[in-house]
Protein 1
Amino acid sequence: MSLYPEVSLKQGAHRRIVGGHLWIFSNELEDGFQSLDAGSLVRVISNDGRCCGIATLNPHSLIAGRLLTREDVRIDREFVQGKLSRAFDLRKRLLPENDTCRVVFSEADGLPGLIIDKFDRGVVYQSLTAGMDTLMPSVIEWIERTLDPIAMVAANDTSMRTLEGITQERKFILGEMNETPVFEQDDLKLICDPVKGQKTGYFLDQRLNRKLAQTFVRGGESVLDLFCYSGAFGAYLARAGAGYVTFVDGSARALELAKETARLNGFEAKCETLKADIFDWLKSGGKQYDIVSVDPPALAKSRSKAMQALRAYRDLNARAMKWVKPGGLLLTSSCSGLISRVNWREMIEQASFKSRRQVRFVAFGTQSPDHPVLAAMPETEYLKFAIAAID
């Protein structure tokens, strides 16, 4: 007898799962799964009766199943903590001298719905699904034992939890910390905002792209850092020798963080902040900059909105290009996983035509290695980054 209730895949639906994908959509399951509780562990059976593995289930979500393993095994404390340890071992190999990194990246580490970021001895996690909520006691025990945090925050206030039908909250699980703790990375003092900030409080995924961008600074350049959040892009460029940085964001809180980042690193004399709706502000025209960084939030929230998001990215980049001095650089990013790299490149080409500026790509980047990409799940490769010369 199976340890868990069984759910059956419709004919042919097993092929993508066998190929390595971890998601099971509700329309791929035979009726019967709807009566199970959100967060249940289930045994997934193919149409011909073979076991495809064990998954968490949420009958109320479009992504109804998230596979934890392709083996017919018990999902217990030992199983969960073994996956956590293997994820952390990979980070120690990739970033051996770094006390700040993403320890667990959801599906890419075989733990769908779980994010764990480590900022020195502070830990911020996100449980994104009902299924992961059921496994959190084992996760929290492992964090306390292995990462030895002095403080831990649950940043469980994402819209994804609403889609899963579970409550949103952001709270301390362990200890306490300054509201905006400072950590060091790449010889810079940077700020995390785990209590009131976005996502886990700081965007670790852009680390290599910031380091790449600073290699193009020759000294004295003017920089426009759009959607600056805590000012990390501008800080890397200022440290590399940029002459002046203007931080722009729609959030007063973000601009406070950017200003503090500049102060901590001794750049405050050559930095200014501006609160604005960036999409509208860029229409106004103004002085041009040597380097313009555009790092907007994800604009594609669902597949049905992907084309609309591409148009918004196109218009945003076209406007930003007009703010770049001839011969200057545009640093542009997208964190929308639902937009492919090919479509994103085409969007920039369209923005070039719309702005009547010639664009030459000089470098490309992606998410940092502590955000690995699962080969069978293109959705896990979400961050796209390019540096372009604008003529």
Protein 2
Amino acid sequence: MTIRVFTSFQAVPAHIRRQLSYPHEPNFFLSLDWFEPLFETCLVNTHSPRIYVALGAEEEVLCSLYCGASVALPRALLSMTNFYSVQYLPGLVGKGCDNAALSALTSHIGQERPRWDLLRLSTLTDGDEATGLFDGLRSHGFLAQRYFQYENWHARVAGESFESYFSQRPSQLRNTVARKQKKLEKLHKVELRFSTEESSDLERLIRDFTTVYEASWKEPEPFSGFIPALATRCASLGILRMGVLYVDGAAAAAQLWITSGTRAFIYKLAYDEKFGQLGVGSILSRELFRRALDEDRVDEIDYGVGSETYKKDWMTSVRQIRGIEAYNLKTASGLLRGTWAEAKAVVKKWRPARKPAEVVA
């Protein structure tokens, strides 16, 4: 087994690039197709790429990890993630090497010169891959700590029709959507437009998605080029599920879903606030859920990171998203930071709960 490190996406050879790309890497969010537009539109000024790839004897990819040397923090290695990320794990684990590939990869990181003082990896879903990465770092000279970041609401829907699934949602949700849709269609001209792949309609839908998002309650996108680049990449792979609902010709609600293998990710959604009372967001959600269940026949629907109340009406389960902070005990700075972090963790664990203040009559 060998470890190769690429310091740009352009430096990845074609035969390795193919293996790192979707659908050879079956999880889009762990593939080169996800990380490349994310880096080019968002991280180019904060990360200097370091793409770690474990290769077998025939140069088959056994494991990959997309990182970046921090531009701001000296000798800090960061996961190639930000607030757009929904998942971060080693890619392709399970293709033939599993923990051995992870161990080789973390060993290589621990031996690099100059040594890293700090590793900061975020947005990891609990599971064997995250545990293997954590254990590998601890085995190769790092003091690693895990910390909670987000909740991730999701639903297992394998073999279930939309009618069955929707019938199990809260009655208030079902009745509200039905009532709002009936009233909307009675009083207004309603149109639904969708795009799943490259087409002449895609550019318009991306433009209308942006218009809706900018008119919504959400903060403006800090990197305006990311969503168009992501939608275009997903369309080229046939995994885009973008829907826009129009009311009297005006874009009123928009959603961007991504279907990766047997999982549907609800990635971005918004509605124009002036149409909020018409229930346009829920009506569009209902149709995209129907398509995911009855047409794509996915096994799981994932609502991304965050604990927004509305997600609980549509989803059935929740899991945790964590981060890893790892300090290199072989460097003076890493040892100092790790000792300080360990001391803070001990103090926090044993600090007695604060008693409520007494009320004086």
